[in-house]
Amino acid sequence: MNDITLFQNFDVKGGPELGRKNLPILQAALKAKGLDGFIVPHEDEYQNEYLPASTDRLQWVSGFTGSAGAGVVMQDSAAIFTDGRYTIQVQQQVDNTLFAYENLEGGGVAAWLRANVKKGQTIGFDPRLHSPAALSRLVSAIENAGGKAIALSPNPIDVAWTDRPPAPLTPIQIQPVALAGKSHGEKRAEIAEAIAYQNADCALITAPPSIAWLLNIRGGDVQCTPLPLSTAIIRKDGHVDFFVNAKKVSSEISQHLGNEVAIHKEEDLEDALKSLSGKTIIMDPDTASAWHFGTAENAGAKVKRAMDPVALPKAKKNSAELNGSAAAHRRDAVPLIQFLHWLDTDAQSGEYDEIDAATKLETLRHRNGGLKDLSFETISGAGANGALCHYRVSVATTLKLEKDSLFLVDSGGQYQDGTTDVTRTVPIGTPTDEMRDRFTRVLKGHIALATIRFPKGTTGPALDAFARAPLWAVGLDYDHGTGHGVGVFLGVHEGPQRISKAPNSVALEPGMIVSNEPGFYKAGEYGIRIENLQFVTEPQDIAGGERPMMGFETLTLAPIHKALIDTDLLTREEIHYVNEYHALVLREIGPKLDGEIFTWLEKACAPL
């Protein structure tokens, strides 16, 4: 394995020492400014899920490395907010003598501010890091408590962070039209038409994935997501002002972008927004910051709050994108099946740990070819660690794959033609009857969502309960969404569609890729999740029906471990589904394998 340079490492990230070192520095800075407190969101200026090291301010001040969180730092106290996914992680990474642990869910940060800010206190915030809606709730909470909210520039963390890593500066690459399906000229014309339809003059695009899709470019500024950090304004005639560090733009990229895409310095965005006085500009309140809104509105622009006009076209994959995604999944299936074979043979010895497993899988992906990056750091969870649904293995936490336990692996790769994300749960040794029961109920929910038919206009929350019903029937559930959107050589978590309990008004449409990943987690013992990616199919008539129905077609190709299936809990139709799915895996991927691994796959895919 030593000839491979891994994309991931297993160093201990974050941790309480960061908070012990940096919290007093920030508190001293607040005192010097005469501020009583400061709000620290996880988000950066681009609303990234995965942050460049240079913008992970919450980690700097607290030591917390999760993908969702927030902090409030007062002169003599602090609080950190996380959701249910990070209950254990935050206790491991954040010193509870410095930070009170609070919940993001329910009232979250706003409720805490309302209860804890004292009359006359001043609380600072960085308007570049908050959406206008989120900031409005925070400011209202502060003011209702009798305090005053103050916008700060520069961010006091940026001033105090003397050893801050440099901003990423990765060259931009072209995403070929053969994989994108449309030239960026065609895409710009489509978006321009949507802008004109809304009687607007232009749209501000602040989400880097939207810009990457729109201009058929990719980058490397963000770990696991091939993004060039940038901002753009697209006008109703299709012309684009592209605000990006020029050092990322080669002559080839300039030629690719052409005369209708003007390249500007990042710092020129403020003047560009101020120049829109009297114009109507579309801004997405979920992705653009309060600073963007304030700058444009204060300059006299009319801001129309609406969804990023690129978001839906990006989510509805065209045939080239779907074909590329299918090819990426077939490619990714080879190392994945090689890895599952290893888990079922060598790894049964109990000698290997979670790091060995994650390293083995990534190495196989590298050797198979075409891997540009991981789509996220591998979740390699043995035993009790498998119950942490967003677990990240490190040298401090790694466990052995012990006999008579479960191992959960959630992983994915970035390929130029597609992004993969797959979870499998494998027994090490002999599973208990309870494990098999829970696994089979998760499988029943997975099958229900894979085979569901639904009419036009159906949203993700309407489907979510189908995946949970077999668990609900016996008083069980899981605390994460059932499905998220996935990009094409873009983000592994992509909106605006999703399948979850949370409200979402975006209807599922043909071409949208979503995950199907019900699970079950028994704290301190084991975790179970089965995840495939699937895309929404075109509506079709059903014999005897009155309305055409859409459905899903599965992209992921890897066997589901039959030793964990209790066939007595499955219906005839569910058994048929498993057998047909395994026959597909064997038919598509079997010819790419040989020897012992092919023989193993034949057995793994044999009918129930």
TrEMBL record:
One GO MF annotation is: metal ion binding
Q: Name one GO cellular component term.
A: cytoplasm
Residue ranges occupied by any Peptidase M24 C-terminal domain in the UniProt entry: 548-608
Q: Which UniProt keywords apply?
A: Aminopeptidase, Hydrolase, Metal-binding, Protease
InterPro entries according to UniProt: Creatin/AminoP/Spt16_N (IPR029149), Creatinase/aminopeptidase-like (IPR036005), Creatinase_N (IPR000587), Pept_M24 (IPR000994), Pept_M24B (IPR033740), Peptidase_M24_C (IPR032416), X-Pro_aminopeptidase_P (IPR050422)
* Peptidase M24 domain location: 328-538
* UniProt xrefs under Pfam families: Creatinase_N, Creatinase_N_2, Peptidase_M24, Peptidase_M24_C
**Keyword GTP-binding in annotation:** no
Ranges for domain Creatinase N-terminal: 26-145
Superkingdom in the source lineage: Bacteria
As for family, the record states:
Belongs to the peptidase M24B family.
Q: From the Swiss-Prot or TrEMBL record, give the protein name.
A: Xaa-Pro aminopeptidase
The upper taxonomy is: Bacteria, Pseudomonadati, Pseudomonadota, Alphaproteobacteria, Maricaulales
